[in-house]
Records
---
Amino acid sequence: MKGLLSLLLVLFIGTIFTRGVDGKAPFTKNLWSLQDKSTAVVTGGTKGIGHAIVTELAKNFGCKVLTCSRNKEELDRCVEEWKEQGLDVRGVVADVATSTGRTVLIEEVKGMINEDDSAEKGLLNILVNNVGTNIRKKTVEYSEDELDFILTTNFKSCYEITKLCHPFMKRQKVEGSNHCDKTSSIVNIGSVAGVTCMKSGTPYAATKAAMNQVTGNWACEWGGDGIRVNCVTPWYINTPLAQQVLKDEAYKRYGVRKFKIISFTSLK
């Protein structure tokens, strides 16, 4: 999983080009790099894919990372572990499925990006929309509250956080042109459930399909602002959220048979 994350982060986040002396041809030596102390926000970074991304960005890319969680005890433990490794990671207790939680997060974002050692002071370089949850059952068994919970946690939080971060991710256009000399990056953590039909629960699948759609629209809408937007759609990763499914051997055999799955990726 570590190698996979490195590749995804390089492809979707680390495409920062250094222009040549003529302002046109890029120097290839910095083709796959991030400036030291680039600022990153990763929602839901205390476990699973989010935790791995926070660690990767801070440890191997030298980023300043802000993450969030609803669980203070869990967040404090993770932040302490990152600090023991010498990583520049900070956390804030915030439920980003709520307007109040998103406001708290954005205030912390403002504080981080305005620190003197930030790569581009006052600007956010990276946003990873990772927060997500699921309740697996048949469609007719979902209550309206359960439906709202999944839609709000998985999709609305991503949509609203991205809107709030947009002013900090816009880059200035090169004078006399329609392109920006520098860029920022948004990466949405989707799911294979958003691109094919499988036994993941219909509300969850709908939120991930919606994430795919807004990713493409944002990429078109904000490309001129220097904001790159991508979505990754992993299969089952062996995280706490997925373990309730992965322990079902019958379901694993179904996945191998129907989707030709070779293995279920581990985070280790």
Note: Residues 144-169 form the longest helix (26 residues).
---
Amino acid sequence: MPNPELAAGSRRKRLLLVAGLAPLVVLLGVWGYLRCQRPSGVEGVLSDIHQQNPDSMTHRALRHFGLLERDDPEYPEIARTAAGTLAAMGPPAVPEIVAALKDPDRSVRMAAAEALGRIGDNRAVGPLIDVTAHDSDPLVSHLAFEALCKIRDPEVVATLAAVLREDKDYLTNWTAMMALGKSGDPAALAPLQEALAGHAHDKCRSDAAMALGLLKNPAAGPALRAALKDPAACVRRTAANALGELGDREAVPLLAEILRKDDSTNVRVEAAGVLGRIGDPAAIEALTAALQDPDSAVRAWAESALKDIRAKNPPPKP
């Protein structure tokens, strides 16, 4: 009795192979692989693939173009072509493509992730988060994250926020937060602020601050300024950087105080650099004092920040 799981896996691979083959039919014709005594055109290709005949002209053609040789250097390019063809199928293809994200072949998973990003269907959000966080291949994870960030479905922020609130594991949380930050959607502000203010783990609060910087929404300023007093140095440092991304001048007095008093060298270095990026002359006094900081890195960043501020605020011409 046939194994249904193996049959489904074989079907997914055949789907990806056929989808990738469609734009290559003309090339195959040029090379003459379909000019023998076999059914012509796409029907013949489908017939050959279905029959799984390794001696067929179609299979020889597929091997030539890398589709059946997994180690062939051209195979990733063919997989990307397959992704484009699958994406053209649109939302009806999503369940089949989502299933392909678990295929043992990395190129199939890569093609599936890219196709889901192009289709942009919210049903792919959960599976893409899982692949980003847990796939054993870094390239597949990267492509899944890129695909996730391309989805602009109106429900995507709600889906990402729900994943974040489930608090499954660190990598899943990171993926959801970075995707929220890259979404540019004002609705992403609330779940990220919630994580920044209340998550139990320092690193997750730091990631929330980073995501708010990516979001570049000025409304995040108050939450990030409050995070400058977080007990964890990594959170204070990332919050300072995010305020620099926002160009938040209201943060200048707080950053100046951090530069003077924070016990973490890394946080003081970040504060100096951010003050230079913001470019407010109100920071000159604190930066000048930081030239006497006991740490050489702080002194160097303070000197660089002073140059940046003076360049952004040249004296008026007489």
Note: The radius of gyration is 27 Å.
---
Amino acid sequence: MRISRIECLRIRSPNLNPQDCDGAAETAVIRITAENGAYGLGETDAPPNVISALLETPTAHIWSRSIRDLLSGENALEVERLWDRLYEGTIYHGRRGLGIMLLSAIDIALHDLRGKLLGVPTFRLLGGAARQAVIPYATLFPSIPQGRSLGRSPLPLCAADGKGSRPWIQGSQDVDAVRRFDYGPPANRFRLRMPEDCRCGHRIDD
């Protein structure tokens, strides 16, 4: 199944506050479509206008090629080969920084598309389930975006050096939900038991 289209969906909140430290304010979603209409999605937490510009960059020479030229008409199932093709074809301008962020989103989209084309969950294509449960990881920033609350009562977590707490690093405490915390690095990691993590997650404002 051949790739027929690749595009960047630029997503940006209409209610931005420059004083916030909110990584969810904007994002870039890459959509790769196969000739049968199936598509895969991949996301990168980078300025969407810059990612879109990189995607639109035309070919200059063998190490600075257009991503569309590199992907169009290629077999969507050959994800690993396409990764190498993209990396080598954009190594002049894309081997670090935003170029790698775009390549990561493309890689995710290709894995998603391959799973859809084969009718198999992507995690099985990556080797199957490695565990039955995961520890949630909360990344929290110095300012809670736009006045939103992370829970009824904040609980300071330990600083990265394990010796003290930073008052702005706070986890969501749903009274009965948070039972165990990992103190020490990384500073913003905490553990919940199932289904308590689900209940706690639902309390976090979007």
Note: The longest strand covers residues 3-12.
